[in-house]
Amino acid sequence: EDQVTQSPEALRLQEGESSSLNCSYTVSGLRGLFWYRQDPGKGPEFLFTLYSAGEEKEKERLKATLTKKESFLHITAPKPEDSATYLCAVQARRGGGADGLTFGKGTHLIIQP
Amino acid sequence: NAGVTQTPKFQVLKTGQSMTLQCAQDMNHEYMSWYRQDPGMGLRLIHYSVGAGITDQGEVPNGYNVSRSTTEDFPLRLLSAAPSQTSVYFCASRRANEKLFFGSGTQLSVL
């Protein structure tokens, strides 16, 4: 069974205080690992897809990295507008039309001015 | 470009009532799916479809029906609502093996 564990559950930072969110996973053959951002009352918004260990992707103050067991979302010098819940999901490499996406419970990030 | 559109945004039902949550996408995506999101739990897949006329069950399908008569629309039907179905429902779509695009959600309360 595919599993995704995100930590911490919640994180409060001061504006400009860099940190990292963790996503540990077990999956029978990884097709892709996804990071989404979710604001209150809205649907998840796509951030990154990582496909293989060692891959890194960046977008503004966010950088996602991937190893064979976990992914990190690094937030550099965050601003209050980065406050959101960050979701991690893995897609298994399996046949048929199954979605194969397993989501973690998310990390609720608050950036205080 | 509207993306994935869900209606209604909010709904209150009484136990035993039935209703349909609507979902439409204008991106010509072959794959569409329904998730529910509950506090303290990750998004869980209810039903999905890989194309018009083809649907299948996800992780938590009991109490829900779906159909896919067109590429654009994927409605979710609650046959006889129960308090356990109180949740936020998200519709999502994508092309094969690409990222999911989510709608803005329907907050459902069953009393």
Describe this structure in words.
- The complex is a heterodimer of chains A (113) and B (111).
- With 113 residues, chain A is mainly β.
- Helix content of chain A is 0%, strand content 58%.
- Chain A starts with a strand and ends with a strand.
- Chain B has strands at residues 4-7, 10-13, 19-25, 31-37, 44-51, 54-57, 64-66, 76-78, 87-94, 101-102, 106-110.
- In chain B, the strands form 2 sheets. In chain B, strands 2, 4, 5, 6, 9, 10 and 11 form a 7-stranded mixed beta sheet that branches. In chain B, strands 1-3-8-7 form a 4-stranded antiparallel beta sheet, with no helix packed on it.
- The chains are: A mainly beta (113), B mainly beta (111).
- The interface between A and B is medium-sized, with 24 and 24 residues.
SSE ordering of chain B: EEEEEEEEEEE
Biggest pleated sheet of chain A: 6 strands, mixed
Structural class of chain B: mainly beta
Q: Strand portion of chain A, in percent?
A: over 45%
CATH fold-level label of chain A: Immunoglobulin-like
CATH superfamily of chain A: Immunoglobulins
Q: What characteristic shape of chain A results from the CA principal axes? A: globular
Q: Per CATH, which architecture of chain A?
A: Sandwich
Q: Estimate the mean pLDDT confidence of chain B.
A: 94
**Helix content range of the residues of chain B, please?**
under 10%
Key structural traits:
heterodimer, A: 113 residues, 6-stranded mixed beta sheet, 11 strands, 58% strand, B: 111 residues, mainly beta, 7-stranded mixed beta sheet, 4-stranded antiparallel beta sheet, globular
Short synopsis of the structure:
The complex is a heterodimer of chains A (113) and B (111). By secondary structure, chain A is mainly beta. Helices cover 0% and strands 58% of the residues of chain A.
